[in-house]
């Protein structure tokens, strides 16, 4: 079997979303058995197209569902090599206008969801280490965990938490052969990005994404924003044995956006 991930077993939360679906498709191309976990089989995309991943219904905020999902993987495969925590939500508000319920929901999905999926995947991931292989957890942070977009307070806070959690997990489980990294995307063309630009928060003030494409491209040094496939490319490498020495890192994928001094654009 060809590819970087022959015979490996992968579990992707948010696996029916824009980025998650691209990751699942890439993993399958690379020879992996893939479980796509999400709230619905169609996910955040309007298309009802199916792929070769195995759909698992999962609300990442519920402990019992996380336990059950990993138990299913254990029963069917007996092990897990790759966990990708891609499930996430975004609320476009300052803290003054964010309700406690919205704040808690943001942390429940973005942080607690990462915690629960990882916690119950660890016994399966640990088996790879005992068999002389390494396993990989890939969390999803954001460039908003380093710098802040206006009006995304809860989102920024959750991503900063994921960054810290990633480093802690890498230190705790590295000795057992489990690598842990986080990918920190910038602007990626997903349903979440379109919602951001169409919203009245820190996005486009109600304008459509089409009217903002040129402005978004121009703010990036490479004059473009990313695609889900761009993210899947990096996830695929981090999941593979080629990345055996990569752990505890926050991999920023933003087209150079955070590398520049913004004042120089004036």
From TrEMBL:
InterPro entries: NAD(P)-bd_dom_sf, Sc_DH/Rdtase_CS, SDR_fam. Pfam families: adh_short_C2. Transmembrane segments: none annotated. PROSITE patterns: ADH_SHORT (PS00061). GO terms for molecular function: oxidoreductase activity. Keywords: Oxidoreductase. Belongs to the short-chain dehydrogenases/reductases (SDR) family. This is Short-chain dehydrogenase. It comes from Rhizobium loti. The lineage of its organism: Bacteria, Pseudomonadati, Pseudomonadota, Alphaproteobacteria, Hyphomicrobiales.
